[in-house]
Amino acid sequence: MFTPIRKFARALRVPSVAEREMTYLNGARDLVDLEYRQREIDRGLFRRG
Questions:
Q1: What is the widest separation between alpha-carbon atoms in the chain?
Q2: What is the pLDDT of residues 1-49, one digit of tens each?
Q3: According to the model, what pLDDT value does residue 38 have?
Q4: CA 34 to chain centre
Q5: I want to staple 40 with a disulfide (CB 3.0 to 4.6 A). Which of 18, 30, 31, 45 is the partner?
Q6: Are 10 and 35 spatial neighbours (Cβ–Cβ below 8 Å)?
Q7: Considering Cα of 37, then 42, then 43, then 49, what sign does the dihedral take?
Q8: Is there a contact between 35 and 15 (Cβ–Cβ < 8 Å)?
Q9: Which domain, by its residues, includes 36?
Q10: pTM to 2 decimal places
Q11: Is residue 9, in this structure, part of any structural domain at all?
């Protein structure tokens, strides 16, 4: 009964900072790109207020 409501709520949920960072890292093409993205995250790319 509540399954459609749960699916709808999940669709509207905003991903957390950690989830966005992981998605960004998973998009790296090679090791150089991955290291570059890791440095960007360490500099606060997703944590700016």
A1: 48
A2: 788 888 888 889 888 999 999 999 999 999 999 999 999 999 998 887 6
A3: 96
A4: 14
A5: 45
A6: no
A7: positive
A8: no
A9: 14-49
A10: 0.72
A11: no
3-state secondary structure 1-49: CCHHHHHHHHHHCCCCHHHHHHHHHHCCCCHHHHHHHHHHHHCCCCCCC
- Has residue 3 been placed in a domain? no
Distances (CA, A) of 18 to 2, 13, 35, 47: 28, 14, 17, 10
- Asked if residue 33 belongs to a domain, the reply is yes
> Is the Cα torsion angle 32, 22, 11, 13 positive or negative in sign?
negative
Cβ contact 9:31 at 8 Å: no
Would residue 7 count as lying in a domain?
A: no
